[in-house]
Specification:
CATH architecture of the largest domain: Alpha-Beta Horseshoe
Number of strands: 15
Number of domains: 3
CATH superfamily of the largest domain: tm_1862 like domain
Strand content: 5-15%
Helix content: 40-55%
Length: 522
């Protein structure tokens, strides 16, 4: 096992670049380290491989005591490359990896990336105990919850500690995460024809809990469900709304609306906020079916703009196979109820589930078409069922002899296309049929969406994308070539104001054409 030559250096934690989702896992890790008095630096790895060596040299220049990488399974590929370059640059500190890319198969993750340690499960306490051992020059073998590289072997030393009571979670150090990356979420959606996000949205992400009480066969279930209190979440939201001059809250995990009682408590607390806001929540169709219309109307009145839900299939047989715990009738009825109260649904369908046939996918197709014709503002995402490590599907792939070891899945996976390509096929379709059916769903959705919204909306959406392309060209060909100085900065500010005004005007025009009004608080 590798010790550190920089026992007084900072702790460096590396996140993938922020886009769409705030990295709460990394944020809570950094917050816990800061709470314990550690100097924690958060860096964001570049997507472009050409910049990785410069990025590695930035890490080495900090002389850290340790560097940690976290993420989902597809992040293993980028982390492996970064560790390779760190080794070439003769690093003098250990590398630690953690997150969903590690916990289900810790020995393999450490082996394939070349890391020195892997954190298993929730990492705040475990990672801090490792840092503390390195500072005191103690052998980290006494820290539970680690996969430790020892020469050519990797051994796991048992389960580690984690935070049971989520009221004990540290404060999220938002200041370590550039707000221009995570606050203006609406700008990421300029190229996507959906009314859920607006160009000038300033969105505060709020974390609702950890773990999951459900048993979907495509998910990695790492711990039992634990919930943050609504009062604690709203107090945090109230502070952040004013600090960042935001207009919207994003509750991104299903645990926020775990049942009607918690949903009503959330709505009552949001109604007391003095600042007018809108918000987005995630839920499930079985929970939605237990929420009465009065509660849904109250959610809309208090600013609920978006509800994210997983359909996954329009075939009841496949819903039962994946242990989704919902019915097709709940899906159809739920989507209609959301349309009736004015909440915008964003939903997902997967293709290639266990034993799925083309006939099953056609049932998903029929449900999707019916929903778009009823609600032209619904938004869909389509993916291919992927048996990630830790899921029931992953275990089935081994039982059926499709996978022979963890490296087999690693080689089959495509980190660029991720859930858009077949890696392991457990359906009753060929690989080509699975990918063709997913593409058919997507193209049919686009056609139905354009037919439902009409040519004027299509023209406005096309204009938004065209303006965005022109903007990228102007910044690259003109502003990057201007000499640094006050005049260039003034011109850039004036240009950015003009661009923003153009996108906001186009945004308002498309919302008017779609018949959508901004929610108003009473």
């Amino acid at each position: 096992m590798l010790s550190s030559q920089n026992t007084t250096g900072p702790v460096v934690v590396v996140s993938k670049d922020i886009a769409y989702a705030f990295p709460f896992g990394i944020a809570y890790l950094a917050g816990y380290l800061r709470q314990k008095g550690e100097d924690c630096r958060v860096l964001f790895r570049p997507d472009n491989p050409a910049y990785l060596r410069d990025f590695v040299q930035r890490i080495i220049a900090l002389k850290p005591i340790v560097v940690g990488f976290g993420g989902l399974y597809p992040d293993l590929y980028a982390v492996r490359e970064l560790v390779r370059i760190l080794n070439e640059e003769r690093r003098s500190f250990p590398v630690v990896i953690g997150g969903q890319m590690v916990s289900p198969t810790p020995e393999f993750a450490v082996e394939i990336t070349g890391a020195d340690y892997g954190v298993i499960g929730e990492g705040e306490i475990i990672f801090y105990e490792l840092v503390n051992a390195l500072r005191e020059r103690r052998a980290p073998s006494g820290v539970k919850g680690l996969a430790i590289r020892d020469a050519k072997l990797v051994r796991v030393n048992g389960p580690g500690a984690f935070i049971h009571d989520l009221s004990k979670l540290p404060r999220v150090p938002y200041d370590l995460f550039p707000s221009e990356k995570w606050l203006p979420i609406g700008r990421y959606y300029v190229g996507m024809a959906q009314p859920h996000w607006r160009y000038d949205d300033r969105v505060i992400p709020i974390h609702g809990g950890r773990g999951c009480p459900y048993k979907c066969n495509f998910c990695y279930h790492h711990s039992k469900a634990r919930y943050r209190s609504i009062s604690e979440m709203i107090a945090e939201a109230d502070e952040l709304l004013y600090r960042y001059d935001a207009n919207m809250l994003y509750f991104g995990d299903d645990l926020v609306l775990s049942g009607p009682r918690r949903a009503r408590e959330l709505v009552e607390s949001l109604a007391k906020l003095k600042r007018p806001i809108e918000y987005s929540v995630s839920s499930r169709f079985d929970i939605l079916s237990r929420m009465d219309d009065d509660l849904l109307r109250e959610m809309r009145r208090t600013g609920c703009r978006i509800m994210g839900l997983g359909i996954e299939s329009g075939s009841q047989r496949i819903l039962d196979t994946m242990h989704k715990g919902i019915t097709v009738d709940q899906i159809v009825t739920g989507l209609r109820r959301l349309k009736n109260v004015g909440i915008l649904p964003t939903v997902s369908i997967m293709v290639g589930q266990l034993s799925e046939t083309t006939e099953d996918v056609e049932e998903s197709m029929a449900l999707m078409i019916e929903s778009v014709r009823y609600d032209k503002n619904i938004q869909y995402a389509f993916s291919i069922a992927t048996p990630f490590p830790g899921s029931e599907l992953y275990a089935l792939a081994f039982q059926r002899g499709i996978l022979k070891d963890h490296e087999d899945f690693w080689k089959r996976s495509d980190p660029e296309r991720q859930m858009l390509a077949v890696s392991v096929n457990l359906s009753n379709m060929s690989d080509a049929e699975v990918e063709a059916m997913r593409t058919k769903l997507e193209t049919t959705f686009r056609r139905e969406k354009e037919r439902a919204t009409g040519p004027k909306v299509l023209m406005v959406e096309t204009s938004r994308r065209r303006v965005a392309r022109i903007d990228r060209g102007v910044r690259k060909e003109i502003f990057r070539r201007l000499p640094d100085g006050g005049v260039a900065r003034t011109l850039l500010r004036l240009y950015e104001s003009l661009y923003d005004m153009t996108q906001i005007w186009l945004d308002k025009l498309r919302l008017h054409l779609l018949g959508i009004r901004m929610a108003r608080r009473q």
